[in-house]
Design brief:
Layout: E1 11-16, H1 28-52, E2 60-65, H2 71-80, E3 83-86, H3 92-101, E4 107-110, H4 119-128, E5 134-138, E6 144-149, H5 167-178, E7 182-183, H6 197-201, H7 205-211
Parallel strand pairs: 1-2, 1-4, 2-3, 5-7
Antiparallel strand pairs: 4-6, 5-6
Helix pairs in contact: 1-7
Amino acid sequence: MSADAHGTFPLAILAKAPIPGQVKTRLIPALGAEGACRLHERLLLHAVATALAATSPQYITLWTTLDHAHPLFRELADRHGLKLRAQPEGDLGERMHQALQAMDAPGVLIGSDCPALTPALLGRCQAALTDADAVFLPVEDGGYALVGVRRADRRLFTAIDWGTNRVMAQTRDRADELGWRLACPARLWDVDRPEDLDRLANRSNLLTMTGGLYA
């Protein structure tokens, strides 16, 4: 989907403020706290650029945490017209549920760890909700990079061992219990561990996509 063919679907991004020592902590042994923080900021900018190329900015919400008034969040909101909302209390499942429940139409939610996401893939995931009850993009480490639902239901996110390689499998179990039809248009990879950095180094588009956000 090109920048001239925006969608009109809700898209939520779970966004941590770039604070050294509090983001990408599993990468600190390889990059240091400052380096891990810079990478996190670049990945977040990539996620925002991808979202802006997929749907109109008034449909995008940054759900913020760590520092809701961080200058990066304010800059993105002021420059692009994105909405900012503070993530609620609770585990990851509760925070995702609240973000999906806040949408006034079926939509998708992403994080900022997956440079393999593209605007076209976001559009495909949204289109999948025409027939499926939920859409996911599983990642190689057993989690997922995107979730979208036709209707929010907290039970989809209950009894999940967040941060483990069992997340997607357990989520499939919850969907089966709900009687939901799932769509999984692709399987991707994300950036969480030092071994992911070599693959990331080959993603030259990460630099080119984020540069325009502050141009």
